[in-house]
Amino acid sequence: MHELGHGATFHLLYGRTEPVFVFTMDGEYGGYMPIPEINPLGRPPQSREDWRGIMAWTFGGWAAVHLAIRQGRLPDAPEACPGNIGYLGPHPMDEALIRQHAAESGVQDPDVLVAEARTLALDLLRPHMPKLWPLAELTASRGFADPPEIAQACMAQTDDPN
Fold first, then answer.
1. Percentage of the chain with pLDDT > 90?
2. Beta pairing, strands 28-32 & 20-25
3. pTM to 2 decimals?
4. How many domains is the chain built from?
5. pLDDT tens across 71-117, in order?
6. Is 29 domain-assigned?
7. Which of 11, 14, 20, 37 has the most CB atoms less than 10 A away?
8. What b/e sequence results for 34-68 when a residue is b if at least 16 CB atoms lie within 10 Å of its CB, and e otherwise?
9. Pseudo-torsion of CA 86, 90, 95, 98, nearest 10°?
């Protein structure tokens, strides 16, 4: 679910889709989404909106898992799992990257920008969860989701309040 959240958020923000991959290692899931060679903006981020989008993409993994837990599709990560590894990504990679982006943005209120990006990721993914969840299950079983599948899952919106 985590990597698919990154992929779906990337698609919803930038209209481009990259494959996502998951795998098991030492009893935990790992995964990645190939980061495109060029910045999704085609230029360095220049505005608060640019930074918010990039940070929301980075929050996409967390947001997908958060929504899946809230909807009862995933259990809470066990206490013995520091940083919710396997749900939130390798600790503290995504969170550290988000904080790095906040610092690089030069905004006077980086904590507010982080909160805005988190909210944007949740708002982008929420209506697509009914289609993303089955794709997440398929991705977990076979190890990947390809771009057309991710784009298709992002097309159907629902009125699901969770």
1. 59
2. antiparallel
3. 0.85
4. 1
5. 999 887 655 454 444 454 455 678 888 989 999 999 999 999 999 99
6. yes
7. 20
8. eeeeeebeeeebeeeebbbbbbbbbbbbbbbbbbb
9. -110
